[in-house]
Amino acid sequence: MNTRLVAAFRGEVQCRREAGAVRWRLAGQDRDGGGALELMLSGPADAPMPAPWRDAELHVRGEPDHPAWEWRSGAQVQMLAARAVQVHRGAAAAFAEALPRVVAPWTVRAGWVLLLDALRVPGMVRLLQRLRGGSAAP
Q1: Model pTM?
Q2: I need a surface site. Which of 36, 50, 73, 102 has the fewest CB within 10 A?
Q3: CB 4 within 8 A of CB 60
Q4: How many Cβ atoms are within 10 Å of 93's Cβ, its own excluded?
């Protein structure tokens, strides 16, 4: 039968039972990206919690409308009675990497600090507007 890797952890996986629609929360480090990885599994209330293995993987097999979930680590395999699985990967590192690395010179940063501090003084906005040649607000 065809199986597909859904998520892979590096190191220890923290398993925690939840209340509500989400029955188990598995958290750890993503093996591929290195960021945070969290799995939320929903299923019957009496189903056993997944074992907290090291370097574990979640696989799915079967039809899309009737999936079978497997929790694997090395030669160990545990079938999970989950109806649905949500995979949450941390995006903070990828987001920070996508931003341009622009650092403003210290003179520009100091100018903004002085301007913003000056705008705290009552009446300074009207004075600056007059100096610019604009009309002052009543």
Answers
A1: 0.63
A2: 102
A3: yes
A4: 12
Q: Which residue has the tokens 């705290």?
A: 120
- CA 111, chain centre distance (Å): 35
**H or E element in which residue 72 lies:** strand 66-73
What are the phi and psi torsion angles at 57 (to 5°)?
-135, 150
Cα 55 from Cα 11, distance rounded (Å) = 5
Nearest to 19 by CA among 49, 56, 45, 53: 45
Of residues 61, 35, 132, the one with CA closest to residue 69: 61
Sheet of strand 76-80, all strands in order from the earlier edge strand to the far edge? 76-80, 66-73, 57-63, 3-17, 24-30, 36-42, 84-89
Q: How far apart are CA 64 and CA 137, in angstroms?
A: 63
3-class DSSP state of 93: helix
